[in-house]
Amino acid sequence: MTHRSVYIVSLGPGDPGLIALHGADVLRRADIVFCPETKAGSRSADFLKKLGVNESRIRCYQLPMNKERAQAYAAYDRLFEEVVSRYSQGECVAVVAEGDAGFYSSTRYLSGKLKNAAIPVVRIAGIPAFIAAAASVGLPLTEQEERLTVYPGRIDAEMLRRVESGGEVAVVMKLSQCEPELKRLLRSGENSMWHYFENVGSHEEFYTCDKEQIAKRAFPYFSLLIIKSV
């Protein structure tokens, strides 16, 4: 008899204390937990070990991290085959996603394939990195009538103008994709406060709102920016 669902579990920003209780429970009782691994290693696997997941149940899969998604989709195709095999054997299968699985997460591709194969999927929500980032420094993201807009790998002068008018708060993610333009606009944003974060929720976490410091950073993959009017 098979389990009724495959679980897509959101890990949150990287602190084991910030995962949903339901998600932690699923991961601890799953027969196998699949997590992504890059050339730099697997943050997810380290997270799972800290959470108390038995190492023998953790299975890493290689996930290329670049803008050309063909290789990533091929990795998910291979993962799909293994997930289906384990599920068909009656095992409780979980696949993890950093941050929230419904927020710019490539696990959506796997979820779609599973649903097309008539395999039910349960997605467990997590805390997106920008929510955790703001909380870590006591920063209110939005107030009163402000809008919050998330920009994935893009920043421009019009966006900055809307922020400085006081009507919008901007979250910029995937900073490495827009680093030159971001650093150019950094010098012109006189009426805005730039809150820069790296590796939120990990021991490598870094924060500054000093624009000179931001300009000197080489933006890693896990970096984000929150821009508010002053």
TrEMBL record:
Residues 6-207 form the Tetrapyrrole methylase domain. Its EC number is 2.1.1.151. Gene3D superfamilies: Cobalt-precorrin-4 Transmethylase, Domain 1, Methyltransferase, Cobalt-precorrin-4 Transmethylase, Domain 2. This is Cobalt-precorrin-2 C(20)-methyltransferase. Pathway: Cofactor biosynthesis; adenosylcobalamin biosynthesis. Homodimer. Keywords: Cobalamin biosynthesis, Methyltransferase, S-adenosyl-L-methionine, Transferase. It catalyses: Co-precorrin-2 + S-adenosyl-L-methionine = Co-precorrin-3 + S-adenosyl-L-homocysteine + H(+). One of its GO terms (molecular function) is precorrin-2 C20-methyltransferase activity. Belongs to the precorrin methyltransferase family. GO terms for biological process: cobalamin biosynthetic process; methylation.
